[in-house]
Automatic annotation (TrEMBL):
Coiled coil: none annotated. The keyword Lipid biosynthesis does not apply. GO terms for biological process: leaf senescence; response to hydrogen peroxide; response to ozone; response to salicylic acid. This is WRKY domain-containing protein. Residues 122-185 form the WRKY domain. PROSITE patterns: WRKY.
Length: 360
DNA sequence: GGGATTTGACCGCG
DNA sequence: CGCGGTCAAATCCC
């Protein structure tokens, strides 16, 4: 597949956003057809659309600026995707939380951390992210009360999928799981909810039943939709004050976040989307369980780390881009650069193989 | 019986 | 040498 140069990543993002806008426009049209829809619905939809378009413009500009610079061509040789740019310095680690994910193996693989919250502290099941994982180890970690579980993709042997994750329950809060994902899914497994909507149940799923969410069969599409919904959430009506203070919510006692995921599951799709859209160490996504009752809980993404070392990236600076987008849209999309820069590493691209991605 | 999980041992990096 | 990550045999569960 293609190496995701910075510009291409941005273009891909642009395509994503445009597709999003298309969908939103369609929804707006549906609202128009629905006699029950009210003005506020219109307004919300219109605002979302406006935000999306503004974003598209901003990203287009950023891509243009970036492509004029250098940035590309410095991809690592050992990795199909570059693992660099913005994340290095800025996305690195949330200082207030644990981090310490600078370990040994798998250095080349992109890594991002999500924080899952389960509604019930005593359930031991790890949060279901929609993929099939196979546990291959567990270890007590120094300084942690709870052991860390090591999981790899069920299809690792069958399809050579390198995706792994580490799940550790927070010692401070029993409801919170820190999940560190490593590597992208190259397998063709469908996330459970998707699988159910399309074919038989997802492989190996011993976890929650699939919520009937979107019905797209393409995992990439689903990621995209998760992305979109995360976006929607952030840009919803009156969502112009959605950033940092979310961190103040105590995990267990946190009031429902002022937004919710209407349809996306707490899958890796959503996690990835949230990761992509989370400003470094600031955004904090949470979703009340009642929207997806079948899923263990909510997730928060608080870190995304793509590669072993900080790297300088040409073109617009991350913060600049974020600012550009924010200004352009009136929303806080400071995280967009994140996606624009890192998109190739997110588990979007490799899913359906090179030939039938949703972005082409 | 097959696949997933458990668990102690082993390995590599800092 | 210690710690974190992985392996693989034993065990469990459907």
């Amino acid at each position: 597949m293609q190496d995701g140069a910075g510009g291409e990543g941005g273009i891909q993002l642009l395509l994503t956003i445009l597709a999003d806008g298309e969908e939103q426009a369609r929804q707006l049209g549906e609202l128009a057809d629905d006699p029950r829809s009210r003005a506020e619905h219109y307004r919300g939809a219109a605002r979302r659309l406006q935000c999306t378009l503004g974003k598209a413009v901003a990203v287009a500009k950023a891509v243009e600026a970036a492509s004029g610079g250098s940035s590309r061509g410095t991809d690592r040789s050992d990795s199909p995707r570059s693992v660099d740019e913005s994340s290095g310095a800025t996305a690195a680690v949330e200082p207030q939380e644990r981090q310490v994910i600078g370990n040994k193996r798998r250095k080349g693989l992109p890594r991002w951390t999500a924080k899952f919250r389960v509604p019930d502290a005593n359930l031991e099941a790890t949060p279901d992210d929609g993929f099939s994982w196979r546990k291959y180890g567990q270890k007590d970690i120094l300084g942690a009360k709870f052991p860390r579980g090591y999981y790899r993709c069920t299809y690792r042997t069958a399809q050579g999928c390198p995706a792994t994750k580490q799940v550790q329950r927070s010692d401070a809060d029993l409801c919170v799981f820190d999940v560190t994902y490593q590597g992208e899914h190259t397998c063709h497994q469908k996330q459970r909810h998707v699988a159910v909507a399309t074919a038989h149940g997802g492989g190996g799923g011993s976890q929650s039943p699939p919520p009937s969410c979107h019905e797209q069969g393409d995992p990439s599409m689903q990621l995209l939709m998760g992305f979109k919904d995360a976006l929607k959430v952030e840009t919803g009506p009156g969502a112009l004050h959605q950033d940092r203070d979310y961190y103040d919510h105590g995990p267990a006692s946190a009031p429902a976040a002022p937004f919710s995921f209407p349809s996306v599951p707490f899958g890796e799709a959503a996690a990835a989307a949230a990761a992509a859209f989370s400003a470094p160490g600031s955004s904090y996504f949470s979703a009340p369980p009642h929207h997806c009752p079948a899923v263990a809980g909510s997730y928060d993404v608080y870190d995304y780390e793509a590669g072993p070392g900080p790297r300088v990236r040409g073109g617009a600076e991350p913060s600049e881009l974020g600012e550009v987008v924010s200004r352009a849209t009136g929303c806080d999309y400071s995280s967009l650069y994140h996606h624009a820069g890192l998109d190739p590493h997110l588990p979007f691209a490799p899913f359906g193989g090179p030939s039938h991605g949703p972005f082409q």
